[in-house]
Design brief:
This is Nitrite reductase. InterPro entries: NO2/SO3_Rdtase_4Fe4S_dom, NO2/SO3_Rdtase_4Fe4S_prot, NO2/SO3_Rdtase_4Fe4S_sf, NO2/SO3_Rdtase_FeS/sirohaem_BS. It comes from Niallia circulans. Keywords: 4Fe-4S, Iron, Iron-sulfur, Metal-binding. The chain is of the alpha+beta class. The chain folds into 2 domains: about 5-70, Alpha-Beta Plaits; about 75-200, Sulfite Reductase Hemoprotein, domain 1 (2-Layer Sandwich). About 35% of the residues lie in helices and about 20% in strands. A hairpin with a 2-residue loop joins strand 7 and strand 8 (about 140-145).
Amino acid sequence: MSVEKIKIAVNGGIQFGAKLNAKQLALLAKYLDEDQEVELTTFQQIYLEVPQSNATEIMQEFRLSGLSCYPVGNYVKSLRTCNFCKGSEEEGMPIAQELNRIIAGREVPFTLKAAYTGCPVGCGEPLVNDIGIMKIKDTYSLYIGGKATGKDAEIGTLLMKELSPEELYRKVEEILELYINEGKKREKFYKFVNRIGIDQIKERL
């Protein structure tokens, strides 16, 4: 009798680089069959399948080891980040961690990717993701509608700049609410932005 499984996404959370320690790797291996594979995504996540019957207990065990767990499908992905090369305060790691807590795992019309970078170098690639945040000195610039792949790949549009952390959280949440409420089923976020229009989105935030 086959065991029904579900796919989950796992990573080491928002920290200095996309890292896992030996204990976490051993814990992941504990729930893998000998011939089972895990999928490493471009968005700093590992996909693996776990038995549906005790998925909640397994994810709790993962979290206790310091891993973060997220649903797979039409949800907001965990925040893609740069490697925070100059320290948590200077590069805004606490802001990235809080933003990830607010948005990651929310159900949306189509998988949405948000990215954050702690300086204008842009290692987290915020300009080519659905929602991008760039820290510039002590404020935050917010971009939307980027597209990283395909022959029609394009850079996102600067929606707002010089935001405080509180303003950033609120505006990102408002953008998500707009997309959740008015996006068509399986409508990609960049298509939603193009359909509604940047000016209209600005007016409604």
